[in-house]
Amino acid sequence: MSTLRFILMLAFLGFPLLEIAVLIQVGQAIGFLPTLALLVLSAALGLMVIRAQGLAMVGRMFDALGQGRFVFASVLDSYAMIAAGCLLIVPGFISDALGIMLLVPALRRLILGALLPGLAGRRPEQSRPSENLKNEPTRPIVIEGTYERIDDDRDKNR
To answer: What distance in Å separates the CA atoms of residue 14 and residue 10, rounded to the nearest whole number?
Structure first.
Protein backbone atom coordinates (compact mmCIF):
# COMPACT_ATOMS: atom_id res chain seq x y z
CA MET A 1 0.00 0.00 0.00
CA SER A 2 1.42 3.37 -0.95
CA THR A 3 2.10 6.02 1.64
CA LEU A 4 -0.52 8.39 0.26
CA ARG A 5 -3.22 5.73 0.38
CA PHE A 6 -2.27 4.90 3.95
CA ILE A 7 -2.42 8.56 4.99
CA LEU A 8 -5.79 9.03 3.28
CA MET A 9 -7.13 5.87 4.91
CA LEU A 10 -5.99 7.10 8.32
CA ALA A 11 -7.58 10.50 7.67
CA PHE A 12 -10.92 9.04 6.57
CA LEU A 13 -11.00 6.62 9.48
CA GLY A 14 -9.28 8.80 12.05
CA PHE A 15 -11.19 12.05 11.59
CA PRO A 16 -14.64 10.61 12.37
CA LEU A 17 -13.24 8.72 15.33
CA LEU A 18 -11.63 11.91 16.60
CA GLU A 19 -14.92 13.78 16.12
CA ILE A 20 -16.77 11.11 18.12
CA ALA A 21 -14.18 11.26 20.91
CA VAL A 22 -14.51 15.05 21.14
CA LEU A 23 -18.32 14.79 21.09
CA ILE A 24 -18.19 12.32 24.00
CA GLN A 25 -15.83 14.56 25.98
CA VAL A 26 -17.95 17.67 25.41
CA GLY A 27 -21.11 15.71 26.23
CA GLN A 28 -19.60 14.56 29.52
CA ALA A 29 -18.44 18.08 30.35
CA ILE A 30 -21.62 20.08 29.56
CA GLY A 31 -24.29 17.41 29.23
CA PHE A 32 -26.24 15.79 26.41
CA LEU A 33 -28.84 18.50 25.69
CA PRO A 34 -26.40 21.45 25.58
CA THR A 35 -24.11 19.41 23.29
CA LEU A 36 -27.03 18.58 21.02
CA ALA A 37 -28.14 22.23 21.05
CA LEU A 38 -24.64 23.36 20.00
CA LEU A 39 -24.61 20.86 17.14
CA VAL A 40 -28.06 21.96 15.92
CA LEU A 41 -27.08 25.63 16.25
CA SER A 42 -23.88 25.11 14.23
CA ALA A 43 -25.81 23.22 11.54
CA ALA A 44 -28.34 26.06 11.31
CA LEU A 45 -25.49 28.57 11.04
CA GLY A 46 -23.93 26.46 8.29
CA LEU A 47 -27.18 26.43 6.33
CA MET A 48 -27.47 30.21 6.65
CA VAL A 49 -23.89 30.69 5.45
CA ILE A 50 -24.41 28.43 2.43
CA ARG A 51 -27.66 30.15 1.51
CA ALA A 52 -26.16 33.64 1.79
CA GLN A 53 -22.98 32.75 -0.08
CA GLY A 54 -24.77 30.97 -2.89
CA LEU A 55 -26.72 34.12 -3.65
CA ALA A 56 -23.85 36.54 -3.06
CA MET A 57 -21.29 34.63 -5.13
CA VAL A 58 -22.84 35.60 -8.45
CA GLY A 59 -23.07 39.24 -7.39
CA ARG A 60 -19.42 39.32 -6.28
CA MET A 61 -18.35 37.72 -9.52
CA PHE A 62 -20.10 40.37 -11.63
CA ASP A 63 -18.78 43.15 -9.37
CA ALA A 64 -15.24 41.85 -9.80
CA LEU A 65 -15.68 41.67 -13.56
CA GLY A 66 -17.07 45.20 -13.65
CA GLN A 67 -14.14 46.56 -11.64
CA GLY A 68 -11.55 44.72 -13.71
CA ARG A 69 -10.45 42.49 -10.85
CA PHE A 70 -9.35 38.89 -10.99
CA VAL A 71 -12.64 36.94 -10.84
CA PHE A 72 -11.07 33.71 -9.62
CA ALA A 73 -10.12 35.24 -6.27
CA SER A 74 -13.68 36.29 -5.46
CA VAL A 75 -15.12 32.95 -6.61
CA LEU A 76 -12.49 31.08 -4.56
CA ASP A 77 -13.41 33.19 -1.54
CA SER A 78 -17.08 32.33 -2.01
CA TYR A 79 -16.32 28.62 -2.37
CA ALA A 80 -14.29 28.78 0.84
CA MET A 81 -17.30 30.31 2.60
CA ILE A 82 -19.55 27.57 1.21
CA ALA A 83 -17.03 24.96 2.42
CA ALA A 84 -17.16 26.65 5.84
CA GLY A 85 -20.94 26.25 5.82
CA CYS A 86 -20.62 22.58 4.90
CA LEU A 87 -18.12 22.03 7.72
CA LEU A 88 -20.55 23.67 10.13
CA ILE A 89 -23.33 21.34 9.01
CA VAL A 90 -21.25 18.20 9.63
CA PRO A 91 -21.86 17.08 13.23
CA GLY A 92 -18.73 17.49 15.30
CA PHE A 93 -16.79 20.20 17.02
CA ILE A 94 -13.53 19.81 15.10
CA SER A 95 -15.26 20.39 11.76
CA ASP A 96 -17.15 23.30 13.37
CA ALA A 97 -13.85 24.84 14.47
CA LEU A 98 -12.46 24.50 10.93
CA GLY A 99 -15.65 26.02 9.52
CA ILE A 100 -15.50 28.98 11.90
CA MET A 101 -11.85 29.51 10.97
CA LEU A 102 -12.89 29.74 7.32
CA LEU A 103 -15.55 32.31 8.21
CA VAL A 104 -12.95 34.74 9.60
CA PRO A 105 -11.60 36.69 6.58
CA ALA A 106 -7.99 36.97 7.81
CA LEU A 107 -7.79 33.27 8.67
CA ARG A 108 -9.50 32.33 5.40
CA ARG A 109 -6.88 34.25 3.39
CA LEU A 110 -4.13 32.61 5.42
CA ILE A 111 -5.55 29.11 4.89
CA LEU A 112 -6.22 29.64 1.19
CA GLY A 113 -2.80 31.21 0.77
CA ALA A 114 -1.21 28.12 2.30
CA LEU A 115 -3.27 25.74 0.16
CA LEU A 116 -3.03 27.70 -3.10
CA PRO A 117 0.06 29.91 -3.01
CA GLY A 118 0.01 32.71 -5.53
CA LEU A 119 -3.73 32.62 -6.17
CA ALA A 120 -5.66 32.95 -2.95
CA GLY A 121 -3.32 35.26 -1.11
CA ARG A 122 -4.01 38.16 -3.45
CA ARG A 123 -6.03 41.03 -2.19
CA PRO A 124 -8.52 42.65 -4.56
CA GLU A 125 -6.20 45.67 -4.94
CA GLN A 126 -3.35 43.42 -6.06
CA SER A 127 -5.42 41.54 -8.59
CA ARG A 128 -6.49 44.64 -10.50
CA PRO A 129 -4.58 45.46 -13.66
CA SER A 130 -1.73 47.83 -12.96
CA GLU A 131 -2.14 51.49 -13.79
CA ASN A 132 0.53 51.23 -16.49
CA LEU A 133 -1.49 48.69 -18.41
CA LYS A 134 -4.64 50.82 -18.22
CA ASN A 135 -2.96 53.79 -19.92
CA GLU A 136 -1.55 51.81 -22.83
CA PRO A 137 -3.63 51.82 -25.99
CA THR A 138 -5.17 48.47 -26.74
CA ARG A 139 -4.27 46.87 -30.03
CA PRO A 140 -6.66 44.64 -31.92
CA ILE A 141 -5.93 40.94 -31.89
CA VAL A 142 -5.04 39.68 -35.35
CA ILE A 143 -5.16 35.98 -36.13
CA GLU A 144 -3.63 35.04 -39.47
CA GLY A 145 -4.65 31.94 -41.35
CA THR A 146 -5.83 30.49 -44.62
CA TYR A 147 -9.17 29.09 -45.59
CA GLU A 148 -10.77 27.22 -48.45
CA ARG A 149 -14.41 27.73 -49.39
CA ILE A 150 -16.32 24.58 -50.19
CA ASP A 151 -19.73 25.05 -51.76
CA ASP A 152 -22.41 22.49 -51.06
CA ASP A 153 -23.81 22.83 -54.61
CA ARG A 154 -20.54 21.85 -56.24
CA ASP A 155 -20.32 18.69 -54.12
CA LYS A 156 -23.86 17.62 -55.09
CA ASN A 157 -23.16 17.85 -58.86
CA ARG A 158 -20.26 15.41 -58.75
So the answer is: 5
